[in-house]
Amino acid sequence: MTNMRFPFRRLPDDLGLMVLKTMEYHEIIAYSLTSKKALSLVQFLGLSLQSAQIKIGWPSIFLDFGDSTIQIKWKEGEYDEEMMSFDDIPINVAVTTRKNSLTFDFVSMEFFPIFEIASFTWSNKGKSIGQWVQHIYSIFRCDWYEATFHIGMIRYDIQSLRTTFPKLNKTVISCFNNKPNEHNIQSAQVILRAFLPYVNDVQMFSVRLQENVSLQHIGMVNLRKLEMHDPPNLNFGDILIWNVEFSIVHTYQFSMRDMNRFFKMWTNSSFPRLRSFKIYGKTIVDWNVLLKGLHLENERRLETEGAERGMEFIIQNCYGTLAEIRVYNDIPTNVSVHFTVSNSR
Amino acid sequence: MSSTEQGTSSAAPAEPTTAPESAAAPEVPESFYYVHGKDKVVHKVSAGALQHSALIHGMISNLGYTEEQAKANPFPFENIDGDILQMVVDWCNQHKGKPTPPEDTNLPKQKEKLFDLVLAVNYLEIKELLTYCCKQVAMMVKGKSPEEIREIWMIPTDAEDEAAEKEAKKRAGKEAAGETAAAAGDAK
After folding, report:
1. Cβ-based burial of B43 (10 A; exposed 0-12, middle 13-18, buried ≥19)
2. What are the DSSP E strand ranges found in chain A?
3. Which residues are CB-contacts of A292 (< 8 A; sequence separation ≥ 6)?
4. Residues of chain B neighbouring A35 (CB-CB closer than 8 A)
5. Which of A55, A249, A272, B26 has an alpha carbon within 20 to 30 A of B145's alpha carbon?
6. Are residues B117 and B37 in the same domain?
7. Structural domain count of chain B
């Protein structure tokens, strides 16, 4: 390390801010960790951040500034163990920065993206995972906070979740345990109860739900987007009372009869907020069942690449709003149905 | 006042070479001003070079000094060390009438003087040089960890900050008590 010293704190605040403004984001974060006064000077900068994605389980945070990104990964132990609570104190912090820019190639006369990646390891001076997340929250003005909660050993409680994540736009819950135990089910319930009233988007992977917070409850909250992957106990009847704008369901099985019911309900003015619904799963396409009782405005075979066995239909609801139904069936029994409401009438 | 006049010809020509486009127009002789720092050493600087400093430019813009008057009344900057002022004057001369490049290689190299230089440049309101100086300060901690930044920038820990605040409060209390006692003594 250089022997050079500079009494930075003796600079007037406006000069200190001028210096900070010339620094890279990860250096500003590093400076903010040196003391409370340093943090308050950094907060005064009012730095903007496009999005922050926080992962809890094997904790990390990904900060996207547009032309650059920072990933901060907290190492829990020598073998990078799963975290047990927000009070866990990581042993060190791995920071990876990436700067994106364009370079012009005079041979091809085209711009090419170039990436500059750098990695650093910081020691952690007694700051817990929860404190780290709050620290990052306190520095940036961010439009989009997204948190992924891994359901495993960690014990969640509503109060600490809301304290650690005062603002959250999207919640992702992932459970990769094939046979979720009571603790796993309770953890998902706690997370949903903590954030459902505040978030815009919810995404769930293999999350088993119970009656007190069921798929019906989640779907009835005014969410913008709800995405379900392999829900263990999906009842299609639950989907029929959802009140979301965008929904995506990846399931094991679904029936043409259920989809037909869904379309009929839409034509009779159900799902007024719905903009798009996509379902993926195993089923046998039976056009007669799918389209039974629907008045089709238009019908054509899809000609896009990879959609040789696909069909597209246009239907209209009682308000005159049009919607497009696309059915993809390229791999036998693997079917996806995309329902998109058109803006035009 | 012990004044040693220092020409600036070594750093940059004091008199600009005649520009071809001004051949037709009568050449206006360049005016010079004089500044001195804490060490009272007087530096002769052209008005063109001084334009970098918003503070000095503001001071001289309406003066209309003659050469003799300017020489007799050097601007005193008692809060700036002589060697720091020399650096600033040199930089102003080197960048006289030129657009400032994005990366300045003519920055003063003595980093131990960087703190005083930043304060002086800020006081003299030399925007471009201040930007370069701030970049220099930032470069000292480029890619460093929080602990390294603390060491290089001499940042006290929270405990040290709290102790210093307590000490300052105690000192302020003592001073206030001393003043009260002195005032009471005066009243008697």
Report:
1. buried
2. 47-56, 60-64, 68-75, 92-105, 110-123, 140-150, 170-174, 201-205, 225-229, 246-253, 276-282, 296-301, 311-316, 322-331, 334-341
3. A260
4. 150, 155-158, 161
5. A55
6. yes
7. 2
How many contacts (CB atoms, under 8 Å) link A and B?
100
Residue B2 bridge partners (DSSP):
none
Element (H, E) at B186: helix B158-187
Chain B residues bordering chain A (beta-carbon distance below 8 Å): 111-112, 114-115, 118-119, 122, 130-131, 134-135, 137-138, 140-158, 161
Distance from CA of B95 to the nearest CA of A (A): 22
Q: Is the pTM of this model over 0.80?
A: yes
List the domain range (segments joined by +) for residue A1.
1-44
CB B76, CB B36: distance < 8 Å: yes
Please report the pLDDT score of residue B97 as a whole number.
76
Nearest residue of chain B to residue A6 (CA atoms): B153
For residue A36, give the nearest of A163, A139, A130, A128 by alpha carbon: A139
CATH code of the domain in which A32 resides: 1.20.1280
- Note the Cα B106 to chain centre separation in Å: 16
Q: Is residue B59 part of a domain?
A: yes
Of B146, B151, B161, the CB nearest to A30: B146
For residue B143, the chain A residue with the least C-alpha distance is A27
What is the CA A264 to chain-centroid distance, rounded? 31
For residue A1, the chain B residue with the least C-alpha distance is B148
CB pair distance less than 8 Å for B115 and A35: no
Full domain range(s) for residue B73: 29-93+106-150
Q: What residue in B sits closest to A22 (Cα-Cα)?
A: B135
Residues B77-95 have a mean pLDDT of: 88
Instruction: Give this complex's ipTM.
Output: 0.83
Residues B84 and B161 in one domain: no
What token pair was written down for A4? 């050079």
* pLDDT tens digits along A58-107: 999 999 999 999 999 999 887 878 888 899 999 999 999 999 888 888 88
Residues B128, B169 within the same domain: no
| Pairing between β-strand A246-253 and β-strand A225-229 as defined by DSSP bridges | parallel
